[in-house]
UniProtKB/TrEMBL annotation:
Keywords: Carbohydrate metabolism, Galactose metabolism, Metal-binding, Nucleotidyltransferase, Transferase, Zinc
Organism name: Georgenia subflava
Pathway stated in the Swiss-Prot or TrEMBL entry: Carbohydrate metabolism; galactose metabolism
Domain Galactose-1-phosphate uridyl transferase C-terminal: 245-404
Similarity comment text for this entry: Belongs to the galactose-1-phosphate uridylyltransferase type 1 family.
Source superkingdom: Bacteria
The protein's name: Galactose-1-phosphate uridylyltransferase
GO MF, any single term: UDP-glucose:hexose-1-phosphate uridylyltransferase activity
GO terms for cellular component: cytoplasm
UniProt feature coiled coil, ranges: none
Signal peptide: none
Gene responsible for this protein: galT
Amino acid sequence: MRTRPGDAGTDARVRRTATRLADGRELIYFDDSEPYVSGGATRRLDDPRPLPDRFADVVGDDGTPRPVTAPQMRLDVLTGEWVPMAAHRMNRTHLPPADANPLAPAQPGSAYSDGEIPATDYDVVVFENRFPSLLAVPGVPDVPGELDGEQLWQVRPAAGRCEVICFSPDPGGSLAGVGTRRMRTVIEAWADRTATLGALDGVEQVFCFENRGEEIGVTLHHPHGQIYAYPYVTPRTATMLRQARAHRARTGNNLLRDVLDAELRSGRRIVAGSEHWVAYVPAAARWPVEVHLAPRRDVPDLPALTGPERDDLARLYLRVLQAGDRYFTRPAEDPRAGTPIALPYIAAWHQAPVREGREDLRLHLQLFSTLRAPGKLKYLAGSESAMGAWISDTTPERIADRYREVMSDDVTSDDDITSDGGVEERNR
């Protein structure tokens, strides 16, 4: 089997099959089950929807066709941060009924609906977002300009890429319940997309993440995540990079390496560990529930992980997710008192940028929740939102204690990883 460049460390047997949707967006199946993984069968590759090419001219109200407009981003001169303007996303799909779920597989034998995935089943699938915040439009040069002719207000095309990754064909499922083999396939997809998107012209950073729960702002309940390829280094990463460089200048050491080593020496906030990974609550955790997952070896991003590191990550990540779903239980006045509450969360993979800071920043996952108690959310009010001055509602030690209470030694699945190959790439 042929291994995709950038994934030389992979061991999981996954077949990668790429095609194009009706409007020209790319879709990629990542298969780990038979008969697809061996090539005995192929998922549906055609998309019969009557969608216009996404870069075709747009006919205005006056009947005149005009070139499609590229999304724009503007520089906030007060902070030095780029702010993409994605006004077209106001019309994106919002909490559709079950029979109109655009991320579900197509129904066997039914007329093709406006779903995004042509196949009647899939393992893991990735496709370009139909309502992207970042999009490189052919023929639109990625050059700076000025707003209203004012040199102070810089503008640029928001020329990146946004993708959706579906973790399961089950609309009622969750990433925590996919099993280790499927989680391993998800990791392969993350690594594949990080390597591929990072090689695109103008991309500076790749961000894999998952939003889960309406409290977080999720508009589609189907288990899925997103992958952003930014044309700039994001503010959070730029801040960490600045801190890491200052730390290296003072000590000669990698800041994130020193953070992990200090947490291991303390042990107070370690919630779980394995051969290749450590889960801990950071000493200055901000959120009511927050845990970080870091590799023991220094690596800049997901493609740099070896096969055994990816295997180990699949198991420990599932344990962390499943513990999160036991973190809170329903209160006594609830008719289902004592039963677990599915944790709303954001899971964010922090990776080194494509070009700068690869020796200073270190791969790690940050998983956090806005839920501070059953039925109560952490709102970002005046201090946090206006001043950026965080005030925590708990302590990292309490978070760690609770995580250890609910952390299981085993993943609640009899599924396991079969590592005997690489990623075979098939393109249509």
